[in-house]
Amino acid sequence: MGIPKTVFSTFLFSALPVLGVILVLFLANFFLTRKFGDTTESIARKQLTMLLVILFGLIFLIATLPLAEALKFKILGLCGLLIGAALALSLIRFFANFLAGSWLKSTGGFHRGDFIHILDHSGTVIGRGLFHTEIRREDGDLVTLPNLLLITRPVQVRSASHPVVAAEISVGYQFPRQKIEDLLILAADSLQLTDISVEIVGLCHSFVRYRIKGLAPQIGEQPLAPSRLKAQILDGLQRQGIEVVSSGKG
Question: What percent of the chain is predicted at pLDDT more than 90?
Answer without folding.
Answer: 10
